[in-house]
Amino acid sequence: MVLAELRTKSQKTMSGEHQIYWRKGKFSLIGLLVVLGILSGTWQPKIAIRLPMGRERSARIEMKELEESLQLFYLDVGRYPTTSEGLEATVHSPWNVNSWQGPYRSTDLPKDPWGKRYIYRCPGGHNTFDLSSSGPDGVEDSIDDIVSWK
Hints:
By secondary structure, this protein is mainly alpha-helical. It has 3 helices and 3 strands. The protein has one domain: Glycoprotein, Type 4 Pilin, CATH 3.30.700.
């Protein structure tokens, strides 16, 4: 009973437009915008953190695919492409290789998620061949590089 009296008193002090929203249990556009603003603020940091992790994961997957095409080249030719032949040797036959049976990829060579070419060296400094991406900063041999030997 007390609650009903309070509601009636508060409705009498409100303007006619607000009484309609109060009675029907609806909310205002401003309230909706405030809620959306709060929610977008809490989701934004999660998206900002996951985007770089997704690009790094994508680079690692593409590097694995490149390694597989290099292995197929090795099975046919008996060696890995030299640094000067590069990854292109998995798509186009080097001029001096007779046993090439490629292409060893169904698509052209991909660029890393930051739009740069993957770096290939053979012989490598860490393995038989080294494959890497210069990462977000685009600078080779920096801390954010994505490498095949780690």
